[in-house]
Amino acid sequence: xxxxxxxxxxxxCKSGTSVKIECRSLDFQATTMFWYRQxxxxxxxLMATSNEGSKATYEQGVEKDKFLINHxxxxxxxxxxxxxxxxxxxxxICSARVPGREGLGAFFGQGTRxxxx
Amino acid sequence: DQQVKQNSPSLSVQEGRISxxxxxxxxSMFDYFLWYKKYPAEGPxxxxxxxxxxxxxxxxxFTVFLNKSAKHLSLHIVPxxxxxxxxxxxxxxxEAQKLVFGQGTRxxxxx
Lengths: 117, 111
Prior knowledge:
The complex is a heterodimer.
Chain A: E1 4-7, E2 10-13, E3 19-25, E4 32-38, E5 44-51, E6 57-58, E7 67-73, E8 76-81, E9 90-97, E10 106-108, E11 112-116
Parallel strand pairs in A: 2-11
Antiparallel strand pairs in A: 1-3, 3-8, 4-5, 4-9, 5-6, 7-8, 9-10, 9-11
Chain B: E1 4-5, E2 10-14, E3 19-25, E4 32-38, E5 45-51, E6 56-59, E7 62-67, E8 72-77, E9 86-93, E10 100-101, E11 105-110
Parallel strand pairs in B: 2-11
Antiparallel strand pairs in B: 1-3, 3-8, 4-5, 4-9, 6-7, 7-8, 9-10, 9-11
């Protein structure tokens, strides 16, 4: 199946700093990628849809200025958590669907565990 | 508004028996449904999907059933194996757009 790689797998940062998470589609081009957040023992909540070459589409309640998304190429989307605070600590996951082969489902990255101290 | 619901947070099944995980949805625009398996600290892994034009899809030990009139789908795993122990999420989408996930069901297979 298609491969989506996410980096880093875990990161610890100090409160007030910014953290960048990368999501790459390794063997296909993804015009659209999705960023999710998962709290412990809860579902995956869609944060935003990342569109190559244009602005991301954010879900209601997600702060655009805090969670910056850049989809600079067909294989790379980045999520930057700016001025991170302890409440931003969570598991962040990206995904992408292979264009024209939606029957394969979305492919997910390994996830990034962010801990803000 | 929880458009996709998995009402059972956990399920325990004996090895070799059938595991049945259930999912309900409210949005009649959903036309594609998927099941994912997830281990802790990992991204979800796609298991099986079904289009709204079908009522059953089978792949090895996994079968997904869709009842559109009831807005209900289920995942059957038979026979259940210890390696099936994980959290299972159902998800739905409309016109290949964003996925909406249920809350997940933790499946435990007992030897």
